[in-house]
Amino acid sequence: MYSSVKLCFLPLMAAIVMKAYRLSTQDLHIFYLYLEKNSTSLTIFSISLILGLTLYIMNRPKPVYLVDFSCYLPPSHLKVSVKKIMSHVRVIREQGMWAKTGEHDYLMDFVEKILERSGLGQETYIPEGLHCLPIEQTMAGSRKETTDVILGAVDNVLRNTGVSPSDIGILVVNSSTFNPTPSLATIIVNRYKLRDNIKSLNLGGMGCSAGVIAIDVAKSLLQVHRNTYALVVSTENITQNLYLGNDKSMLVTNCLFRVGGAAVLLSNISKDRKRAKYKLAHTVRVHTGSDDRSYGCATQEDDEDGLVGVSLSKDLPMVAARTLKINIATLGPLVLPISEKFRFFVTFVKKKFINPKIKHYMPDFKLAFEHFCIHAGGRALIDELEKNLHLSPLHVEASRMTLHRFGNTSSSSIWYELAYTEAKGRMKKGDRIWQIALGSGFKCNSSVWVALRNVKPSANNPWEDCLHKYPVEIDI
Predict the structure, then answer these.
(1) What CA–CA distance (Å, rounded) separates 158 from 265?
(2) Catalytic: which of 375, 395, 445, 461?
(3) Confidence of residue 104 (pLDDT cuts 50, 70, 90)
(4) Quick one: how far is CA 297 from the chain centroid?
(5) 6 or 28, which is more confident?
(6) What backbone torsions phi and psi does residue 319 show, to the nearest 5 degrees?
(7) Is 131 in the active site?
(8) What is the DSSP letter of 412?
(9) pLDDT (tens digit, 9 = 90+) per residue, 234-270?
(10) Is 360 a catalytic residue?
(11) Catalytic member of 404, 444, 445, 461
(12) Catalytic site residue 255?
């Protein structure tokens, strides 16, 4: 909102600057003599100036700093390969724990093909309950998975920053499909004994883009509550959401989603700028849920046998592309250089008034950002954004390697990607980062960060034990 107001006032500001530039020394001297002889005018001028400066200082957006973040690294015994997954699935079906169908071999071939082409590697993680035979899809197992992820990430970020839990004034937690009572936010409040007046929110059902939504919500709260920290936690639950039916559109999520989560510590305290890694520049949220196709393209529902899963419709690629375009059109004016804005405007005018067949001009976002953290939702999503945004393999390396090493960890994937970039030593002072995520609803959300220093990876970076292996060639 503040950026939009600034854009509206740019012509007025330019006119004032040009007028002031034309003033001569004599003009300023005459103005000074006038004020000197008219004490009332001088008083009114001084009060107006002081009032204006006070209002500006009070109402300008407060800087939001990212002090540090942490991504959860599951224990090694939770690792799975494609071969182990397929062996496990066959045993589950043979033991009758999976819905019966006459297309057993066909569905097994379908699942194996998805796994092999997904871009996931041989060391992703599934929760403890799904390693068991018979599998354990209990509330206790689901709660344990999410609690381990959340507390593991939060413990590490608090340890690395030295921030006391009592200093945290804002807590935002997002988990799309697992929302028990007491809430996940309350689990954190209880574990760390956060203060009684904590401003806590628990976001549910908002899909893979909810991590950026959580950052935007925390940013808004940090504009209201002064000198405090905001803890943002993003995760998803796999235990409860394993689909045991035979609908192919619902089996896809089984193949892609894996255990993961992230904790992010934000601050609006001025002195934290010296130690913070990044400053938040922009957040842009787009929600096209008013359109029926957008609303229904990713839905948690019952299949024909009454088994719950997440169904992905054939409209998903089209809906995702349309929502992404709206997000880009909103973000572009905030971050692109004037040359790219001008080219976009000229193409728009030509298409509108001269030749409707002219293709839309896709601005060169490589001029606006040094790093791209594209939600690791799947190989096809990364491929499409790489193509449409004219990115190089290096620009999408963090996304592809995150998908390969950790799978689709939902809303936390963009933080594993940022951790990868830091671990590779590529983050330099002044670098700009674009985190972009898409999720059910349908939503496309962006956050833009600026590095405040040459950023080194924090302790217990999730890539520590395997960075020497990456990047790897991914054979599809």
Answers:
(1) 8
(2) 375
(3) low
(4) 20
(5) 28
(6) -65, -45
(7) no
(8) G
(9) 999 999 999 988 888 899 999 999 999 999 999 999 9
(10) no
(11) 404
(12) no
Which residues, 6+ apart, have CB-to-CB distance to 195 below 8 Å?
A: 166, 168, 169
Phi/psi for 89 (5° steps) reads: -65, -40
Report the pLDDT averaged over residues 201-229. 96
Amino acid at residue number 197: N
* Cα distance between residue 259 and residue 239, in whole Å: 9
Note the pTM of the prediction, 2 decimals: 0.88
Task: Examine the residue annotation and report whether 132 is marked as an active-site residue of this protein.
Answer: no
- Residue 78 CB coordination number (10 Å): 17
Instruction: Indicate which residue of 268, 371, 373, 461 is catalytic.
Output: 371
In sequence order, what E strands does 193-350 have?
Answer: 199-203, 229-235, 261-267, 278-287, 298-302, 308-312
By the 10 Å C-beta count (0-12 exposed, 13-18 middle, 19+ buried), 209 is classed as: buried
Q: Residues 146-161: pLDDT tens digits?
A: 999 999 999 999 999 9
Is 287 labeled as catalytic in the residue annotation? yes
Catalytic hit among 408, 444, 445, 461: 408
Per annotation, catalytic residue among 225, 287, 460, 466: 287
**Contact partners, residue 265, CB within 8 Å, separation at least 6:** 66, 67, 68, 69, 157, 158, 161, 163, 229, 230, 231, 232
Active site residue 395: no
Among residues 71, 174, 208, 373, the one annotated as catalytic is 208
Q: Are 446 and 213 in contact (CB under 8 A)?
A: no
